[in-house]
Amino acid sequence: MLKSDRSLQIMDHSVKNRMLPNDPLVKCFLHCMFDMFGLIDSQNIMHLEALVEVLPEELHNTIIELVGACGTKKGKDGCETAYETVKCYIDVNGKFIWKQMVSLLG
Q1: GO CC terms for this protein (predicted)?
Q2: Residue 11 above 90 pLDDT?
Q3: Domains of the chain in sequence order
Q4: DSSP string covering 27-44
Q5: For residue 101, with 0-12 CB atoms within 10 Å meaning exposed, 13-18 middle and 19 or more buried, which class applies?
Q6: What are phi and psi of 21, to 5 degrees?
Q7: d(CA 79, CA 35)
Q8: Which pTM was predicted?
Q9: I need a surface site. Which of 13, 15, 40, 53 has the fewest CB within 10 A?
Q10: SS3 40
Q11: pLDDT tens per residue across span 33-89
């Protein structure tokens, strides 16, 4: 099984159970996803506020709340940074984050 297949399997299980496992594959999956959407830069700084440009207006306040509360939670590398930041997002507004994950992952 490819790492990407395993990552998707783990993320699918994570979303269904509303838990974010402390797993290197999950951490790097999150980094890859943020990178793909242009939400993390080469310095591993999160730019969730970029979503305000593409998401419906009714979600803007939630995005601004998450950015204000969490910013970027620095880890030892990009994968760890993405993971720690998502953990903060879940702590601040888990209902919103899990709903978005379900939308992204199906």
Answers
A1: extracellular space
A2: no
A3: 22-105 (1.10.238.20)
A4: HHHHHHHHHHTT-B-TT-
A5: buried
A6: -70, 145
A7: 10
A8: 0.86
A9: 53
A10: strand
A11: 899 999 999 999 999 889 888 888 999 999 999 999 999 999 999 999 999 999 999
Q: Which two tokens stand for residue 21?
A: 């496992």
Measured distance CA(25)–CA(7) in Å, rounded: 5
Q: How many residues does the chain have?
A: 106
The whole-angstrom separation of Cα 90 and Cα 26 is 15
8-state DSSP, 77 = S
Residue with tokens 């379900």: 102
Q: Crossing angle of helices 24-36/3-17, nearest 10°?
A: 90
Question: At 30, which amino acid appears?
Answer: L
Tokens standing for residue 75: 């880890």
Q: What is the structure's pLDDT at 58? A: 93
Which two three-digit tokens encode residue 35? Answer: 């990178």
H-run or E-run covering 62: helix 60-70
